[in-house]
TrEMBL record:
Pathway: Cofactor biosynthesis; adenosylcobalamin biosynthesis; cob(II)yrinate a,c-diamide from sirohydrochlorin (anaerobic route): step 6/10
Keyword Methyltransferase tagged: yes
Principal EC category: transferase
Organism: Almyronema epifaneia S1
Identification of the protein by name: Cobalt-precorrin-5B C(1)-methyltransferase
Swiss-Prot/TrEMBL keywords: Cobalamin biosynthesis, Methyltransferase, S-adenosyl-L-methionine, Transferase
Signal peptide region: none
Length: 378
């Protein structure tokens, strides 16, 4: 059984999300642009939650074109977050006459762009954050352009599933809060367990959603919010806890590039711990009898989504049904290995069903039990 954390252990430390550090850099750069004042610490109004954060500023300088550059460094707290310590740059310059808005945001090098539209992956919360913090610093009729740069953004993005959801060439300024809760730090597991125990008192069928995409899609399908558990990467311990709390059925609901790890017996899904997605997918391709060349292409794919795209192209060209065959086998394996995992760790039997979706949030496959449970709870 997964061990509980020792009493008296230091609580996991929360940090701040990437938009906060970008905004802090922009504040420091604007102040220098206005008054040549170098600021070592800036206060950022987080809006959500309603509190201020003091963010250190590493460097401030004027650039040859008259703009100002400031640099902060990401600190996500006790998270297994790949943006930890990455530098965040903001370049602020006075707006050109044609600019209509007081604050224009642009994504520079390392900021991802939306593949379909080409727009910078700077989302609503980040834009709200910049507006709330920069607008009060502008004098009447002053207008600025703010360009956010992540020097390591392109390299870091290759280690994420951003491309699977249509974000390319960098990272997103994403989030709905300024606080980066330590979802992948050990201390957070107790909060997840407490939520599970509470829901187990009123329901014996739960839906495990690995991330925000699963949570959003599950609501759209009509799954009640009080059935859902956000697991982050703590699937293993939470599956065991569910068994110990008497849960009878669990629907595993997640992006195929994440949930596929369970078919390989990987029950902590963070990439820092284990990966093997393409290897698992290639093994199932081979087991289903796909041509050797296709299996080799799947194994060499840069992402699970790229491998899926290749299989779909093969089906379209040859009028085959390999995607359904391979992913149905994967979903069945996920169910079987998860049942066995809970049985081994907690000595109880829990019925498991799986639903996997793709980058477009379209359901890719449902296992037999997944179909039954989904029909039951929707």
């Amino acid at each position: 059984m997964a061990a509980d954390f020792e009493k008296g252990a230091t609580p996991a430390r929360a940090g701040y999300t990437l938009p906060v550090f970008a905004c802090a850099a922009a504040i420091a750069a604007l102040r220098y642009l206005q008054s040549q004042l170098r600021t070592e610490i800036v206060a950022v109004d987080l809006i959500n939650p309603a509190q201020k954060a003091e963010i250190p500023v590493e460097q401030v300088a004027q650039l040859p074109d008259g703009s100002a550059l400031a640099v902060t460094r990401s600190d996500p707290g006790d998270n297994l977050d790949l943006t930890r310590h990455t530098p965040v740059w903001a370049v602020v310059q006075w707006a050109k006459p044609a600019q209509t808005e007081a604050i224009a945001l642009a994504g520079g090098d390392g900021i991802g762009r939306q593949q379909q539209t080409g727009e910078a992956a700077i989302y609503a919360y980040a834009r709200q954050l910049f507006q709330a913090n920069l607008a009060p610093l502008l004098a009447s009729r002053q207008k600025i352009q703010v360009t956010i740069i992540l020097p390591a953004g392109k390299a870091l993005a290759e280690r994420t599933s951003n491309a699977a959801f249509g974000i390319v060439e960098g990272l997103s300024l994403l989030g709905t809060s300024g606080i980066a809760q330590p979802l992948s730090a050990p201390g957070q597991l107790e909060a997840f367990r407490a939520e599970l125990r509470q829901k187990a008192q009123t329901d014996d069928t739960l839906v495990f959603c690995l991330g925000e995409n699963g949570l959003n899609l599950s609501l759209r399908l009509g799954i009640a919010a009080d059935r859902r558990i956000k697991t982050a990467n703590w699937l293993g311990p939470l599956l065991v806890e569910a068994g110990l709390q008497g849960i009878q059925e669990i629907l595993l609901f997640g992006y195929h590039g994440k949930l596929i790890k369970l078919a390989g017996g990987i029950f902590h899904t963070h990439h820092h711990v284990a990966d093997g997605r393409q290897e698992i997918l290639a093994a199932h391709c081979a087991a289903q009898g796909l041509p050797t060349a296709t299996t080799q292409t799947v194994l060499a794919s840069s992402t699970a989504e790229a491998a899926l795209t290749h299989l779909r192209q093969l089906d379209n060209a040859d009028k085959t049904d390999w995607v359904n065959a391979v992913y149905s086998a994967i979903a069945q394996t996920i169910d079987q290995r998860t049942v066995a995992y809970i049985q081994k760790q907690a000595n109880v039997c829990v019925t498991i069903g799986s639903v996997l979706f793709d980058r477009d949030r379209q359901i890719l496959v449902k296992s037999k039990q997944g179909s039954r449970i989904l029909a039951k709870i929707c």
